[in-house]
Amino acid sequence: MEIKILGTGCAKCKKLEELVREVTQEMGIDAKIEKVTDIKEIAKAGVMMTPGLMIDGEVKLSGKLPSKAEISKIITTAMVK
After folding, report:
1. What is the CATH number of the domain that holds 8?
2. Which of 25, 32, 37, 34 is nearest to 72 (CA)?
3. What distances in angstroms separate CA 20 from CA 4, 40, 42, one per listed residue?
4. What is the pTM of this model?
5. 13 is catalytic
6. Can you give the C-alpha Rg of the chain in angstroms?
C-alpha cells in the first residue's frame, strides 16, 4: 500500500502524516508513506485544499484533518478494493 500525504508543510499536514503513521502501525499495515510538498505535484493530483490523503494513486480526502477513526476507515476501505 502506498500512502501519500499532500501538503506544503502546515501544522495540519504534519499532524495528518503523524496520524497516518500511528494508524498504519496500530493496524499492522506495511505501507510506504510519502510526504508530497511540491505544490505542482499536489495540484496535479487534483488537491486544491490541503492536507490531502492519497492511497494507491487515488485521492481519498482533502481540505480537512480527519480523526484517527476516519483514517482507519479510509485505509480499511482502500484495502478491500
Report:
1. 3.40.30.10
2. 25
3. 10, 23, 18
4. 0.93
5. yes
6. 11
User: In 3-state terms, what secondary structure has residue 61?
Assistant: strand
Q: Which of 10, 11, 27, 48 is catalytic?
A: 10
Q: How far is CA 16 from the centre of its chain?
A: 7
Tally of domains in the chain: 1
pLDDT 10s digit of each residue in the chain, 81 long?
999 999 998 999 999 999 999 999 999 999 999 999 999 999 999 999 999 999 999 999 999 999 999 999 999 999 987
Structure-block grid coordinates of residue 67: 480523526
Given the residues 13, 16, 23, 71, select the one marked as catalytic: 13
Domain carrying residue 31: 2-80
Choose among 59, 70, 58, 55: nearest CA to 15.
70
Does 9 participate in catalysis according to the annotation?
no
